[in-house]
Amino acid sequence: MVQLSERPGTKKITNLQDKFIYEVGGMYDAEHRFLEAQQMMWQCCQNNQLKSLIETHIRETEQQIRNLEQVFSTLKQQPQRVNCDAAAGLVSDAQKLMLLAADNPKIVELIIAGEQGKVEQSEITCYRCLIKDAEQMGQNQVVQLLQQNLQQEEQMAQKLEQLKSQLFQEAKSAGGSATSKSR
Question: What are the residue ranges of helices labelled H in 45-139?
Answer without folding.
Answer: 48-74, 85-100, 105-136
